[in-house]
Every structure is written in C-alpha cells, then in structure tokens.
Amino acid sequence: MSDKTAPALPKRQDWVSPWSSRLLRSAGFRFGVIYAALFSVSSVALAGFLWWSTAGLLQRQVADELLSDGDALLSIYFEGGLPGVVAAMKDRIAGNVDDDSLYILADPDLNVLAGNLNGWPAEWPMDQEWGVLRVQRSGLPVQMQVRAFQLPGGLHAMIGRDIALRQHIGRLMQAALLWAALIAVLLGFVGAYAVRGLFRSTIADVSATAMAIGAGDLSRRVTVYGQDDEFDLLATTINDMLDHIGTLMEGVKQVSNAIAHDLRTPIARARTRLEDAALHATTKDELEGAVERAIADLDGIVAVFQALLRISEIEAGARRSKFADVDVSELLMEMAELYDAVAEERGITLFTDIGEHIKLFGDRDMLQQAVANLLDNALKFSPQGGRIGIRLSHSGGQVLIEITDSGPGIPAEERARATERFFRGETSRSTPGSGLGLALVLAVARLHGGDIVLDDAAPGLRASLIVPVKTPAVIAANVSPTAIG
Amino acid sequence: MRILVVEDDKDVANFVVKGLREAGHVVEHADNGRDGLFLGATENFDAIVLDRMLPGGVDGLRILETLRAQNNHTPALFLSAMAQVDDRVKGLKAGGDDYMTKPFAFAELLARVEALTRRGKSDVPVTKLVVADLEMDLLSRSVKRAGQKIDLQPREFRLLEFLMRHSGQVVTRTMLLEGVWDYHFDPQTNVIDVHVSRLRQKVDKPFPQPLIHTVRNAGYMLHLEEP
C-alpha cells in the first residue's frame, strides 16, 4: 500500500474531547499530574516502611517466640519424656490468662493427648511447619500464627499465637494508604490547576509579546518585574535576544538602503564609461582605457560586497570557529612594522607603546583586519608631518588597543554614527573609501565581546578597541569544539 | 604545463582556458564534475583549477577528495564563488593547495596557478637560491649580489626569498601578503608596494641591471630581463 492511500491516523481532537485534550496539553497540568504521582509513590513507600517496621516486627516476634517455645518443649521431652511434655503444656495453657495461645499434642494417629483445641486441625497439611490457622475461640473465629513440628516417637505438636493485633494494624495501614492515595490525587489535581494558572499568567506576557513581534511590532518587549527570579531571567534573556534581532534587522534595512544608494553610483559610473566608450571611442587605446577603468570600478564594487559579506559573517558569529590564543603584543609589533614603511614614505611618524606579552582569546586574522582598518584610516587622514600612535595596554581583564592620529578627527555629533555601515562623515566625503572600515572594526570587537570607542585625541582621532582577555561565557558557548587553530 | 580546468560557467571557462593557453600552457577543460573527475583520475596534469559547485552530481570538493584518496597529489586550486572563511577552510581541508574567490583577476589566477606547480617541485630542501648575479644563502641567511654583501632586515629577507623562489613568475600583492606576512586581508593602503620599493633600494639601486620588475595590473616579478 502506498503512502497516499494509507488511512490518515486519527488526530488527537478526534478521540479526546476538546476539554480534556486541552487540559492534557497544558504543561502546568502535566506538572501537577507528575507531582501527584510522585506524591503517591512516596506515600506508598512510606506506608510500606511503616508496615515493615510495625506489623513486620510483630510477626517476627511471634515467630521467634514460637521457635523458642517449641525448642523448649522439645528439650522437656528429652528430659521428662511424654508425661513431662503433657505437664508442661498443661502448665502453659493454665498460665495463658489472655487465652491467645494454642497448644496441641497428638499421637501418631493424630489423637489429641493434650492441648486447648478439640482435635488436630484436619485441614493442616502433614508436612507444613509454618502457617496461619483459623480456629474457634470462645465461639469467635480467631487467626493464629502456628508452628507444627514432630517430637520423637511420631508425636505431633502444634503451638500458635493469636495475631489479631497484627491484622488490626494491617487494616489500619490499608485504610490509611487508601486515604493517602485519594488525598494525593486530590491535592495533585488542585496543584495541577494552581501550577497551570501560574504558568499561564507568567507565560501570557511572553506569548503576547511574541505574537506582537510576529505581527510586525518589533519594539514590544516582555515585562521584567524586577523580582530577580527565573521568570525575570527568562524575560531579560528574551528581551536581549529581541534587541539583537532588532539590531540585525536594522542592519539589513541599512544595508539594503545603502546598496540602493551607495552602490548605484559606482555601477552607474562603470556603465556610463562602457557605453561612452562603445559609442565614442575612436582608437583602440581609448577603448582599452575605458574598459580598464570600468574593471577598476567593478573591482571596487566587489570589494564593497566582500566587506559587507564579511561584516555579516562576523556578526552572525560564524567566525568563532577559529578562536585561539593570540599574542596581541606580537600582532601589533608586526602590524607596526608593516605600516611603518608606508608612514615613513608619507612623512608621518609612527609611535608605538606596546605592552609586552599581552594575550587574548580570539581570531587572529580578524584582529589583524581590524587593526589594519584602523591604521589605514589613520594614514588616510593624517597630514604630512603628522603622527600616528599605536598603544597596547592591559588592565582588569581587558586589552586596550589605541590607535591615534593627528588628522581632522570626527566631530562629536558624528562619532556615534561613524561605525554604521556606509556612513561617511562630512570631513571624509572627499577621501576615497567605502564607509565600511569602522563598521568592520566594530563587528570584530563585538565578535570578541568587546567594543570600539572613538574620542578626541586633540587634535585627531583616538580609536580604542577594547577586548576582554577571556571571551564572555555567552559568546564562548558558540565556539565550536572542532576549532581549527 | 598541462592544466585541467573544471568549470561549468561557459564565460568563465572560456576566459580562463584562453588566458592559460595564451600564457603558453596546454589546457583541458571539463564542464561538469563527472568528466572532471574522470580526466583528473586518468590523465596526468601539472595543476588543476577546480570550481566547487558543479553539475553532474560530483562537486569540486568530492573530485579532489577522490583524487587525493587515490594518492594523486596534483596541485589544485579552487576557484569558487563560495567566499566564506569556512568554505575556504573546507576547500583546503579537502586537499586544495590554494583557494580563490570569484570574481577574480586573471593575472592573480595565472600567478597562483604557476606558483602552485613550483610549490610541488620543492621536495628537496633548498639551501641556496640564485637568480642572475643575486645569491641567497638560506642557511647563513645572507644575500650577495655580484659578490657584494647586501644587509637585509628579517622581513626584507623573507620578501626577497619569496620573490626568488618564484623567480620568473608573477607574484601578486595578495600572494606576498599571505606568503611573507601571513595576513589574510586586503589593506586599503599600498603597504606591499612600499616594502617592495624599500627592497629595491637595497637589491637593485646600486646595480646596473634591475631584477625586481613591476607587472602592470598584476604584481611583481623577479628575473633578469633579456637585453
């Protein structure tokens, strides 16, 4: 039979009434039921223990007594023979004022020789030693725990004790157990309803928020009641997540806007060049020149796309697979060496103040890229004869990388936006660049659980990359175990 | 050199094949994974240029993994639009010797393919590099030109070593950044040009014949130009 012709399985709603089905699907109710079940199991365990330690103890006592009494009768037989045992039994029966004991002595043909029972109980199997026997006592049925044994010469003896007390306790325990189970179930149901209500009221807010966000209102947040309990923790976590999603959405919006505006210009330029060359170029050189410039324009666009992709790759946290211990001191020395030659060529002095042996846990390539972007910026904006400083210090579990330049700096009102994608400050409009450099630095800083701070170096800009030595736990949790050095 | 190009995009394939042939290489082309694997497994090549996403049920990674499993160590370069860091790592793990992302400049591709075959040959440890009258002793880490000692900083030494190991081949700025500095990013500043120009000051300037040449739109080449 093919899958298509197979009869559809009945859905839950088909065979469970809506009310009970809803109740069963309530997590709160399920918690309550589990709670009731646990409660019942523990009461049964408790009752079992009580039974063992009271009724069980009584039973063991009776058994001990019957054993020692029987052994005593046996030794009396060895000392005084049959008359001795008969006398001892009669003594015992006479001394038993409560009438709760049983004694019978019978000959091999089961004729009673002595005892307080009319005849040898016919229903007693011959070879059974222990058991419970029903007898009539003063016209009342009584249960006895008995022990039957043989004396030499084929004599049969049976002794027993009334076990009414034990049975009484047993009945008490049974009743108590039944009641306990009933109460447990009742309490369980009440508890289930209570827990379900509690769940509903606290989850209602979360679910209302989620619904609002699903409907498009990204500004909604879960209420935090400030009680610092598990529900507040949940609310805070959800809100943090929503903030992150909001930032990402904002980024997507920004990028699509930027692609619409900022990339249109170079694409239009390349297109114009090519069309112009196709229509007006008269020599091969002119044509080649136009094509080459168009290729350069396209390369620029590709570079912007690559930077954009890299930023979103970093923001998605995918780059943490390469996290390892990085010697930042060494990294900065090497970068300084790479850029020193360029600075010198442009008449700019590069100063370094790099603390030794400073390490952090991070992605070496990404940190290099971030520092390179900051140095590229510093070189781009520093005038001839200017100074660029690279400082590295370490305090309170944080690594601080500072790059200062003696350029025009970024006006205070533009600093907050300087790390946005495609943002070009008023002073930098005329310089080449994509407006993605600082956005990438910020993404790298965040990848490491750090941040970037821009302030006035008077004159110039101070860009401080602050990165914790140990990646925060939330971020470290994302580091894949199959890290590639 | 005999080069296998496995690439399904017609325009890219034509461009690469034409360019490699113009550079004097013999090129075989496969436009799907199955043919690519068949050619790679049955014929001898000096290098393979491999796309990652291919029709025919066998992608570039599989081709290379299969070849490597058959103990075929032909140098291979991935040429792929998959540009994420993880993609790159995957490519290199599968046995790739180099990884380039599309779009690409042909000069860069040619330089890297030619560098690949050079890499394959250096099985025996070299202790001395010689190009024209320039000599580099890798053991004593000293450089001489026309018998005259040249003092180089450690980084300059490695830069020159890289150029000499690839003498007669175009070496791009990215290759230098990766090979000499082990950096994997594109600086916005002409850092490499400045370092090469400093090296020129020491290696070429005092001598009549320049050895380090700039190749337009590509990079650098160290060789003695025929007069």
Alpha carbon gyration radius of chain B: 19 Å
Report how far the terminal alpha carbons of chain B are from each other: 26 Å
Distance between the termini of chain A: 53 Å
- Order of SSEs of chain B, N→C? EHEHEHEHEHEEEEHEHHEE
CATH class placement of the largest domain in chain A: Alpha Beta
- The strand line-up of the biggest sheet of chain A is 2-1-5-4-3
Task: Tell me the β content of chain B.
Answer: 15-25%
How would you describe this structure to a colleague?
The complex is a heterodimer of chains A (485) and B (227). Chain A is of the alpha+beta class. In chain A, 55% of the residues lie in helices and 17% in strands. In chain A, strand 4 (140-151) and strand 5 (155-162) form a beta hairpin. The longest helix of chain A is centred in the middle third of the chain and has 51 residues, at 164-214. Residues 1-16 and 479-485 of chain A have low confidence and may be disordered. Chain B has 227 residues and is an alpha/beta fold. Chain B has 2 domains: 2-121, Rossmann fold, CATH 3.40.50; 128-222, Winged helix-like DNA-binding domain superfamily/Winged helix DNA-binding domain (Arc Repressor Mutant, subunit A), CATH 1.10.10. Helices cover 40% and strands 21% of the residues of chain B. Classes of the chains: A alpha+beta (485), B alpha/beta (227). Chain A binds chain B through residues 292, 298-299, 302-303, 306, 309, 313, 318-319, 321-322, 334, 337-339, 341-342, 345, 365, 368-369, 372-373, 375-376, 379-380, 433, 437, 484, and chain B through 83-86, 89, 101, 103, 105, 155, 181, 183-191, 194-195, 197-198, 217.
Give me a quick take on this structure:
Chain A has 485 residues and is of the alpha+beta class. Chain A has helices spanning 12-15, 18-25, 27-53, 55-95, 164-214, 230-280, 284-315, 328-345, 364-381, 412-415, 437-447, 473-476, and strands at residues 101-106, 112-115, 130-137, 140-151, 155-162, 324-327, 349-354, 359-362, 387-395, 398-404, 451-456, 461-468. Chains A and B meet through helix 7, helix 8 and helix 9 of A and helix 4 and helix 8 of B.
